[in-house]
Amino acid sequence: MSGVRSPFPRAMLTRLETGRIVVLSLLLGMLVGGLGIVLRVVLDVVLPWGAWLTGFSPPGPPGEGGLLMAFGDALPWGLLFLPFIGGLYAWLVPAEPGAPYSQLVRGYHARGQWPDVWTGFRTLLATVIAHASGLLIGRDSAFVMVGQIGTRLLGRATRLDAVESRTLMLAGAAAGLGTALHAPLAAAVLIVEILYRRFEFEFEVLMPCVLAAVAAYAIYGLGFGFSPLLSVVGAQLPAAGQVPLYLLLALIVTLLGWILLFAARVVPSAWTDGWLRPVLGGLFGLLTASMALLSAPGVLGDGLGWLQLGLNGFLSEKVMEVAVWRWLLLALGARLAFGGGLFPSVATGGLLGVGLGMGLGLDPAVSGLIGATAFLTVTLNVPVGAALLAVAWGGDTLLPVVLVAAGMAHFLSGETGIVPGQVRSRAVSGAHATPTFAPLPDTVRFMAPRSPAQPAAPIPFDAPADGQAHEGAAAAPERELYRRAVPGGWQGTKLHLVSLPPGVEIVGIVRDGTVRVPRPEMRLTADDELVFLARPQAYAALEGLLRLPGA
């Protein structure tokens, strides 16, 4: 049987597909940048209400208009609301699908099976409420959720295939994170790196993430400026005699982060994932309120403002007390989706670094950034992204030392972390695994490809017809099953009106969890999945046609 001829040469198809991804990435970045402006306005409105509720306003990062001082005293009656808010957050953000980063990672490895947009809005609402009340939720989580929601909205306006959907979901998250960090390049690397526990990347989607993050930050900066999130002035490369002390500091912070990973497992997952989850969330809120009232109000908020004070050398010896309390909250709340974002880990590690640096007589700015890099590397498995983030805030002169700190932390901490859904490597990711199919009716038979005596030469899309084929060409491979979502242009269409290239046939429709025999009058919906029977070259030609604009 002859290969299927594509109406376009392979080179032209590649250029069209690449150009489409570039355009969609830029459009998505602009959309997320606009949504980020809306989110920033909402946060500016609700944060004062949270401060009024608890009676305490922690310092904020200067890049987001925060003031480098705390206001008020923690009010007992106001802090009594924290257990209620903690329970509400744990109820609104169940273990499955989890917090924004968990949804992103799990959905990608499940081949694009992300929660619906309403679940995203519910998660965003819970994140904003918890962050505004002072619980251990970073504002970066809200921006990452906005990026994912933006991708879903873009998907409703355009026709995205499965590959584009997965790529743009990561790009949207990078766009949201870039606006939160004021560092789009670091955000793009963080997103493609956070998927795996090993030192591996989703390098195929790095450029769409960069494009979306840069476009989003450009739009967001028009509204709120382009100043760095944290202001670090005068950070210098350590002298040769101080390098061993900084390495010792990074080693201690790495050890504390490694201990945290084991401490986070103290509470059984059967409790945190079941009906006790809201109760434990309430107890976490009560513990936060007790710490703030009896010991250290510095535990309120995501901690970036306190880190800025520490980097500037404005914190006293109490910095270690605040750092230890925040470390304890992060260890106890990780399984309840508290502290799962970047900012809580950055602040905790940075404050630990500042405190240790004061004891060792080191520069607090360099100590804090090294501590933040090492701790973030351990908790989220993002050594390169953590180093780039420290450089974005502290300057290029710190690149050698933070790279060494990140590499050492990643090497010593092993392959675990606090982000549910991370997998060990690309080899075990569902995004790169051979697709599996639901049970099919008896009328559909799976034909596994046979191993030919001699390997067959690949047949290009524009291969000649039978009469023009070279003599002695290898036999075409056996037909295989392929499963994909209904293309946007086919939704609402009756099955007999769908046009397929030669050699491709629809043998099943997955609807409501079952595989149904296709009928000519069946009308396709957005929730359906199609099961095709085709040879690899024929199905590749179909996918190439579906990716063309207007398909």
Short description:
By secondary structure, the protein is mainly alpha-helical. It is built from 19 helices and 6 strands.
Give an account of the 3D structure.
The protein has helices at residues 10-54, 76-79, 81-92, 100-109, 117-133, 139-157, 162-181, 184-193, 206-224, 243-263, 269-272, 277-294, 304-311, 319-333, 342-360, 364-380, 383-394, 399-413, 536-546, and strands spanning 56-57, 71-72, 480-485, 504-511, 514-516, 529-534. It is mainly alpha-helical. It is globular and about 75 Å long.
- Helical stretch tally: 19
Terminal CA distance reads: 27 Å
**Looking at the structure, what is the overall shape?**
globular
Which percent range fits the helix content? 40-55%
Average pLDDT confidence is 84
Rg for CA atoms: 26 Å
Which properties best describe this structure?
551 residues, 19 helices, disordered N terminus, mainly alpha, globular, single chain, two-stranded antiparallel sheet
Blueprint (SSEs and pairs):
Layout: H1 10-54, E1 56-57, E2 71-72, H2 76-79, H3 81-92, H4 100-109, H5 117-133, H6 139-157, H7 162-181, H8 184-193, H9 206-224, H10 243-263, H11 269-272, H12 277-294, H13 304-311, H14 319-333, H15 342-360, H16 364-380, H17 383-394, H18 399-413, E3 480-485, E4 504-511, E5 514-516, E6 529-534, H19 536-546
Antiparallel strand pairs: 1-2, 3-6, 4-5, 4-6
